[in-house]
Amino acid sequence: MSDHRPHTDPDGLRSMPMPVSRDILSGDLMIPASAVTTLLRAIAAGWTACPCDRSDCHRTAARYAASLTAYADQLDIGCIAAAGQAADPAG
């Protein structure tokens, strides 16, 4: 039986196991988009909390974080659009 309770890693971040399943026909691993976007946003938040004192480090981390957040937003929008198309019988 797997443990699905959150745990705290050495950096003090709370995490949950990644929900993964396997496609029966292809054998491909599948991860829910919500889990991926949550992971991307958590990484971005970690980068914006950079403990160093260098301003160039903060600028770089902020740019990477903004890119990851934008990618997560695009993934959310794409999934919402795909779900809407699947729910619309007129296609």
Distance between the terminal alpha carbons, to the nearest Å? 41 Å
Largest sheet: 2 strands, antiparallel
Shape, please? elongated
What's the pLDDT, averaged over the residues?
79
Unreliable spans: 1-8
Based on CA atoms alone, the radius of gyration comes out at: 17 Å
What's the number of extended β-strand segments? 4
Structural class determined from secondary elements: mainly alpha
**Can you count the helices?**
2
Residue share in β-strands: 5-15%
Helix content: 40-55%
Order of helices and strands: EEEEHH
The spatial strand order of the largest sheet comes to 1-2
Comma- or semicolon-separated keywords:
single chain; 91 residues; mainly alpha; two-stranded antiparallel ribbon; 2 helices; elongated; disordered N terminus
Write the layout of secondary structure elements.
Layout: E1 7-8, E2 14-15, E3 21-22, E4 29-30, H1 33-48, H2 55-87
Antiparallel strand pairs: 1-2, 3-4
Describe this structure in words.
With 91 residues, the protein is mainly alpha-helical. It has a domain at 33-91. Helices cover 54% and strands 9% of the residues. The strands form two sheets. The chain has a two-stranded antiparallel sheet. β3 (21-22) and β4 (29-30) form a beta hairpin. α1 runs antiparallel to α2. The protein is elongated and about 55 Å long. The termini are far apart. The model is unreliable at 1-8 (pLDDT under 50).
Short description:
By secondary structure, the protein is mostly helical. It has two helices and four strands; from the N terminus they run ββββαα.
